[in-house]
Amino acid sequence: MTDTQLACRGVAVSFSGHQVLRNISLTTTPGRVHALLGPNGAGKSTLMSVLLGLIQPDAGEVTLMGQPFTRDALRHVGASINDPAFYSHLSARNNLRVHTTLLGLPDSEADRVLQLVGLQGAGKKKAGTFSTGMKGRLALAQALIGEPEVLILDEPQNGLDPEGIAQLRAYLRDYARAGRTVLVSSHQLGEVLHMADDATVIAGGDVRFAGELAELGPNLEESFFRLTAGGRK
């Protein structure tokens, strides 16, 4: 196991002359859940897209499994970012089978991850009939195929009811405790307190905080506001 399975250094991204990210560095630790926090428009989803090779940064580098980013290294990564997209005419199980087949895994892997996210009873239903919360669960199931060493999840709790959020929290913590890396973006600060060990806070295109979540103190909302208010430093 490498010391750092996922990291980036000095990442900068701009769109049409507008700089979204400036000199962003982030380091995760295997065995711990890392929260990526920031107000709407801070660039959290953009950074996750950079980490996955979906956006080429103007500057900086990404490392996966301790090595410079390569497409081949993505086999170690499971991800769910932005709005999950599925084949609406296919069942949930068959949507997952598309991915298990591409990875050379048995059909039973689709059943395994459906059970993990509580969708074992909905595997035969067409994905196009799913609610927002069920689509979120299906996206998580897809990310978990093959038990990747790194999970990158953008707002995975969206659309989940309180019971579903509690189950997600427990599962992600257990998943990380097995020596894997979990990076989660979230705007639900109260939930982050119960889920994450470490955090990176970005606002105005800059890193405002990076360290153990406990360092932000008992009032996370107050600390978050203090760190993010006023745009760029």
Automatic annotation (TrEMBL):
Superkingdom in the source lineage: Bacteria
Region forming the signal peptide: none
MF-aspect GO terms: ATP binding; ATP hydrolysis activity
Keyword ATP-binding: yes
Keyword GTP-binding: no
Keywords assigned by UniProt, alphabetized: ATP-binding, Nucleotide-binding, Transport
Protein's organism: Corynebacterium ureicelerivorans
Source species taxonomy: Bacteria, Bacillati, Actinomycetota, Actinomycetes, Mycobacteriales
Name this protein carries in UniProt: Bacitracin ABC transporter ATP-binding protein
Residue span(s) of domain ABC transporter: 6-229
Family the entry assigns: Belongs to the ABC transporter superfamily.
